[in-house]
Specification:
Structural class: alpha/beta
Oligomer: single chain
Strand content: 15-25%
Radius of gyration: 24 Å
CATH class of the largest domain: Alpha Beta
Distance between the termini: 62 Å
Largest sheet: 7 strands, mixed
CATH topology of the largest domain: Metallo-beta-lactamase, Chain A
Bound molecules: MU-OXO-diiron
Number of domains: 2
Helix content: 25-40%
CATH architecture of the largest domain: 4-Layer Sandwich
Shape: elongated
Number of strands: 24
């Protein structure tokens, strides 16, 4: 085993032994321009325990980091907090190599791992609230179903006050810095928000309950050790408060105007809407799907109060770029939004009806009359767009004040 890679100690008994993926740029449709890390943690207790593993192709990096602390064959237990393959891709090969005495996962995790790997390894289920003795210290388990898979759970090492929070509190960010306090806070907030918007957002009601559940444990936390990005060891309320804010999804003084365009007609309308809203004091983001990635759109929607969408009609449909982003946004279930629709067409004009239907499915409250134009908007239609913007702005201000 080479000595390129080394572990990083994060607390008295815990080492980070994960992998840095500098190259990944796509996580099932979520663009990750700054790479990621797959965090695994080694607990040097009487029963040496590995918390989570890494993506399949990074197993040697993980084993090499473990070997800088202890021979991997000395590991007694492996705990899988989350079955998704970025944390279990190498699990079976790691089990074969390490030959641990026991492997643990939540009850749903045990089933999920069998469904993924179709292997007969004896993985032991642990219950919500169960304590596992590691000899000279304990590991406690807390189910966190649907954050963000049914199998998900947190583990807590009481002795060092470390909460292993799997995907929660994480971010896709490849760095050599292992602690959040070594990075600028605006970078942390942006990356954590992008991660929340693209991964955790649909489960916001569950997040609120989980935050209460974690608080009710009375456990004393010194570190949050997620499965992606840096470890939080200072000012834990920074990420806790952000999670609470994002999960609450309260309407904010911000509108996102999303559109795609063929010959600039829909774009002219989008600009008229955005300008009029900005004049009314709304913070507006104008995003053209001809240029922008869907991940950026949902990041902007995360803290918005209004979503206004526009598309020309192409072959009796919305433009494919708009179909892409609307499917993505709908799946991520942002809530408490008001909205409106606009678009242009040559002869049939279905796009606005299709967009209205999607917004209704998303439970977006459509508060202004749709504006649709044949071919190119003139001054009269652009004034209608400005009026649409003013109407949405007025309603948004009212809802924020309520
Ligand atoms: Fe990082 Fe849900 O896996």
């Amino acid at each position: 085993m080479n000595n390129i890679y080394s572990a990083i100690q994060i607390s008295e008994h815990v080492y980070w032994v994960g992998a840095i993926d500098w190259s990944i740029r796509d996580f099932h449709g979520y663009t990750t321009p700054h790479g990621s890390t797959y965090n695994a943690y080694l607990v040097m207790a009487d029963k040496i325990t590995l918390i989570d593993t890494v993506k399949s192709s990074f197993m040697d990096e993980m084993l090499s980091r473990i070997a800088s602390v202890v021979d991997p064959s000395k590991i007694d237990y492996i705990v899988s907090n989350h079955s998704e393959q970025d944390h279990t891709g190498c699990l079976l090969r790691a089990i074969d190599r390490i030959k641990p005495e026991k492997v643990f996962a939540s009850a749903v995790g045990v089933k999920t791992l069998k469904e993924i790997f179709h292997a007969q390894h004896d993985i032991q289920p642990v219950k919500d609230g169960e304590t596992l003795s590691l000899g000279n210290m304990d590991l406690r388990f807390l189910e966190t179903r649907m954050i963000h898979w049914p199998d998900s759970m947190f583990s807590y090492l009481e002795k060092d006050g470390v909460l292993f929070s799997q995907d929660a509190f994480g971010m896709h960010l490849a760095t050599f810095e292992r602690f959040a306090d070594q990075l600028p806070s605006d970078m942390l907030e942006y990356e954590a928000a992008t991660y929340y918007a693209n991964i955790v957002l649909p489960y916001s009601p569950v997040v609120l309950k989980a935050l209460d559940k974690v608080a009710a444990t009375g456990w004393s936390f010194k570190l949050f050790a997620p499965d992606h990005g840096p470890v939080w060891r200072q000012n834990l309320s920074f990420i806790l408060d952000l999670y609470k804010k994002w999960a609450l999804q309260k309407p904010a003084n911000k509108a996102v105007v999303v559109y795609a365009t063929m010959w600039h007609s829909t774009e002219m309308m989008a600009k008229a809407i955005a300008e009029s809203m900005a004049r009314e004091g709304i913070r507006v983001k104008l995003l053209s799907m001809n240029e922008v990635h869907r991940s950026e759109v949902i990041y902007e929607v995360l803290e918005a109060g209004a979503l206004i969408v526009g598309s020309p009609t192409l072959n009796n449909n919305i433009l494919p770029q708009m179909a892409d982003v609307m499917t993505y946004i709908k799946g991520l279930k942002p809530s408490h939004l008001i909205g409106a629709v606009f678009g242009s067409y040559g002869w049939s004009g279905e796009s606005v009806k299709d967009l209205e239907a999607i917004l209704k499915e998303m439970k977006v409250d459509i508060v202004a009359e749709t504006v649709s134009v044949k071919h190119v908007p003139g001054e009269d239609v652009l004034e209608k767009c400005s009026e649409l913007g003013r109407t949405v702005a007025a309603e948004l201000k009212k809802r924020i004040a309520d």
